[in-house]
Amino acid sequence: MSGGALSVGADARAGAAAGWDEAVRRLVEERARIALGGGEQAIERQHAKGRLTARERIARLVDDEPGAFQELMTFAGWELYPEAGGAPCGGVVTGLGRIHGRDWMIIANDATVKAGAFFPITAKKVIRAQTIALENRLPTVYLVDSAGVYLPMQDEIFPDQDDFGRVFYLNARMSALGVPQLAAIMGNCVAGGAYLPVMCDKLVMTEGSGLYLAGPALVKAAIGQDVSSEELGGAAMHAEVSGTVDYREPDDEAALRRLRSLAAGYARPYPAPWARDRAEPAPPAADPAGLEELLPVDGGARPYEARDVIARLLDAGPFDEYKAEYGETIVCGTGRLGGYPVGVVANQKRVVRKQGRIEIGGVIYGDAADKAARFVLNCNQAGVPILFLHDVNGFMVGRDSEREGIIRRGAKLVNAVSNSVVPRISVILGGSYGAGHYAMSGKAFAPRFIFALPSARYAVMGGQQAASTLLDIQAAQLRRQGREVDGEVLEELRREVASRYDAALDIRYAAARLWVDEVVAPRELRDVLVRALEACADAPVAESFPLGVFQV
Which residues contact 342 (CB under 8 A, 6 or more apart)? Predict the structure, then answer.
């Protein structure tokens, strides 16, 4: 791999390593807290009912091997809904789980969190998991144990296009497109939520569970009918009378064995053309753990060489860099990752000196936008996935940039990324700001997966610039109100504004709202990316690549 790596002093490396050790330790601890769901007492109540927790069910469903379950959206709901006691993990556990060696999307209600009720973020998380499954043609299994919509927040859950109802829409669309779906009711399944498992290919239900549009209390209130839960919607009734349930099982363990047996009955589709070209995976040229020495843990501006990052992610072997001497603030090239062919678009973070001018690392200049746009076209022509590595401040501004057509050239890149039909996977390594975030296949541009390191920052602009802008606005408001704005007032305002903005920059803030699919440690990143490519491998690639009006 080419490119002059920057030398990093021993003290700097030691400091970076210590900072990353602390960041990774915190990440592990927070994941462990989230895994407790509603807490130990709620777990005990679940066990007292003779039922397993969501994560216990998943552990028994997937293959017995390390890494069989790759959790996604762990931080959903982080620090949201404090008035309701919070919603750890959004009240539902989702991720890629290997069953008989094949990845399935697993969606499991966590009954320890408000009896598995749907908060707004719960619905959005299920929708995101279904969207990933639909785009990648991933078979899906639902482990249902939910009391339905969290009624105090029904107005934020029920009505909109991307709210609760979208779950059933995607359920039906996945079925129509031939995406396998299995469901097991392992507790409550009430009201509108009852439609989801019934629209799956096959439905399993355990004894003691309930499936009904309205529970006994609501039936009594609505039509005056006295009926027991079992008579109204128990497993025996649905297996023997309504015919709604395909398989009745005595308990969770038996239901999970049944699901594994049913999953084995689905033939695996023919891989996408790019996936058929998978070579024998090779380890990277450099240790992936070395990312922690390269990348600033605080998402700061310390420069690093993008090619050094690429060398720690891709398989060892040729990296065919595209236009290496042109548009140098973006590095583009092709190599292999986990044996799969892949294109890479990465922001260069070192200063570029060329032809009498200095270009700032992390900034997209006109020539870099041109190069990246053409490279995206090339990847679509070759039919290979694209990996975007974000550490971007945005597009270059100023008189010279405007005269060079930065808007037109940036629009070209945005168009190419928007209309790209090959799988795109994005990783936010450091900052991902403004329109640069969009151009690098940000969340709004529907990458198949989007991951972030704990060092990631995600906003319309960097903290310092934003704080300065917001400070000016607030100071002007105070002056219009006739208040004196002296140095002391300005300093207090600055601290308040910076604190508020910094809280929103924390990647956990983004992950809580599902702006990223998972926060991963640098040492995990390569394995997570390989798993993501494996998940993309069975989805067909569209044949056409329309571009519409393309700026030249």
Answer: 314, 334, 335, 336, 384, 385, 386, 387, 533
